[in-house]
């Protein structure tokens, strides 16, 4: 919460219980002037938002009561007065709850040497769109590109936080009216549209989001990485993200009908896998069961689709490097892929299909499909959330052969699956957000340091970069490093 919001909430919570004693010592006009000042500062400097409406109601009632009260009279404690105080406590609880659950939050400030610019790019592909019902539809893709800049951004406004369609899709997912997320207009970002790209050329990272999540809901992660000298192509997998806003104003949302269609009876393939873990089978006994399940599970289809999107995007890089904002700024010999959740699974698939990728990172995703029993030929980083012991560790089978190069197997302790997104900042209530006990700012610092150190070493060729040192620096990060068949 913001400072004047906290002051208002403290005022409307405490003052009703002490106002009579206060008015014995301070004239009511002075108290009203104070209240007018804090409300004016809040509205002028912070702006109103609907989460504060219960507090505003209590504020109006407080002003009315201060004007009406006679401090010299003795007040008897009646049933109605007790009932009024109980009602006041209930409304005050709601007044504190709403802005706490949905705060105007602060994103982590990037630590890198560069400012961060952004540009949105629309591409009409010639590929058939299999998700829609119209057989003539061709796949459309929107990208949010993050890039390093040397511009002076001290006097510039930041990028709007999350596009409108993504907001609306998020609101729909949780049964809220779209206007419920208008307060996100007040979230300050450290990303600036349209500023020039920094001199030089930079490694390129293709980033893929989680299934049914906000494609642009990774400001903390991507802003930090871009500030360290990377161009990031933020994918938006149309109809499988929460929302896509096209330049002509059209909006496309997550296709729940398509999800129901492909997932019908989809868990049938998973029951043998779940039972194999639940019944305590050995790794060797489980492996053929897991191998069959991961190939048949319906999410393997989305991993394949998204990998195709990412490879199609790599095909565009040469064109983007020849003209437009990114002209001459892309190091096409240093291409990496990374993603979170389903996007992390797709990032694990791409390097097996495209040798232009030189390093890959999967952040808490499962690479469903036919990857199992294959071996990577490039540096690979796998970051896992701290799942409970009963969670099926499918990736221990999928990644059983590791890589002929470096393979980093890491776990962020006390984290949940959403800790790698902006969710822990947006909804700072762990039970609602599904996040872990780790402080969200510290968790994001660890992950961004790990990811940038990994790509610094394996894309930039920075001899001073050492991903293993991140595991040594932070006790919340478990790490095993493999090189070929041996553990380092």
TrEMBL record:
Keywords: Hydrolase, Lipid degradation, Lipid metabolism, Membrane, Transmembrane, Transmembrane helix. Pfam families: PAF-AH_p_II (PF03403). The chain crosses the membrane at residues 22-44, 50-66, 78-98. The keyword RNA-binding does not apply. InterPro entries: AB_hydrolase_fold. SUPFAM superfamilies: alpha/beta-Hydrolases. This is Platelet-activating factor acetylhydrolase. It comes from Reichenbachiella ulvae. The lineage of its organism: Bacteria, Pseudomonadati, Bacteroidota, Cytophagia, Cytophagales.
């Amino acid at each position: 919460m913001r400072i004047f919001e906290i002051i208002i909430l403290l005022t409307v919570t405490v003052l009703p219980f002490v106002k009579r004693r206060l008015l014995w010592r301070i004239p009511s006009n002075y108290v009203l002037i104070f209240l007018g000042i804090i409300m004016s500062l809040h509205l002028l400097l912070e702006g109103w938002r609907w989460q504060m409406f219960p507090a505003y109601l209590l504020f109006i009632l407080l002003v009315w009561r201060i004007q009406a009260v006679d401090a010299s009279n003795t007040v008897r404690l009646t049933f109605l007065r007790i009932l009024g105080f109980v009602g006041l406590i209930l409304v005050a609880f709601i007044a504190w709850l709403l802005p706490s659950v949905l705060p105007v939050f602060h994103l982590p400030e990037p630590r890198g040497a560069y400012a961060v610019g952004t540009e949105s790019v629309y591409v009409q592909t010639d590929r058939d769109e299999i998700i829609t019902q119209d057989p003539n539809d061709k796949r459309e893709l929107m990208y949010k590109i993050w890039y390093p800049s040397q511009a002076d951004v001290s006097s510039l406004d930041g990028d709007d936080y999350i596009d409108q369609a993504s907001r609306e899709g998020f609101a729909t997912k949780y049964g809220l009216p779209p206007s419920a997320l208008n307060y996100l207009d007040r979230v300050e970002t450290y990303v600036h549209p349209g500023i020039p790209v920094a001199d030089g050329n930079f490694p390129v990272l293709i980033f893929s989001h989680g299934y049914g999540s906000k494609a642009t809901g990774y400001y903390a992660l991507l802003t930090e990485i871009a500030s360290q000298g990377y161009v990031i192509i933020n994918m938006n997998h149309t109809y499988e993200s929460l929302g896509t806003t096209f330049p002509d104003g059209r909006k496309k949302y997550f296709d729940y009908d398509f999800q129901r269609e492909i997932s019908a009876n989809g868990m049938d393939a998973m029951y043998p896998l779940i039972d194999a873990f639940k019944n305590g089978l050995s790794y060797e006994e489980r492996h053929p069961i897991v191998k069959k399940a991961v190939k048949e599970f319906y999410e393997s289809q989305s991993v394949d689709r998204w990998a195709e999107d990412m490879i199609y995007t790599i095909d565009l890089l040469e064109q983007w490097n020849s003209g437009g904002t990114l002209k001459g700024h892309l190091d096409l010999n240093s291409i990496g892929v990374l993603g979170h959740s389903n996007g992390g699974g797709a990032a694990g698939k791409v390097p097996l299909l495209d040798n232009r990728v030189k390093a890959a990172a999967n952040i808490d995703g499962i690479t469903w499909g036919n990857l199992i029993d294959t071996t990577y030929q490039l540096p690979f980083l796998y970051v896992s959330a701290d799942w409970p012991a009963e969670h099926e560790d499918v990736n221990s089978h999928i990644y059983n052969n590791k890589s002929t190069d470096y393979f980093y197997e890491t776990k962020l302790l006390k984290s949940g699956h959403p800790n790698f997104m902006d969710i822990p900042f947006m909804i700072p209530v762990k039970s609602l957000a599904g996040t872990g006990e780790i402080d969200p700012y510290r968790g994001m610092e660890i992950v961004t340091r790990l990811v940038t150190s990994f790509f610094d070493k394996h894309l930039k060729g920075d001899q001073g970069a050492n991903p293993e040192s991140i595991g040594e620096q932070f006790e919340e990060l478990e790490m095993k490093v493999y090189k070929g068949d041996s553990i380092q």
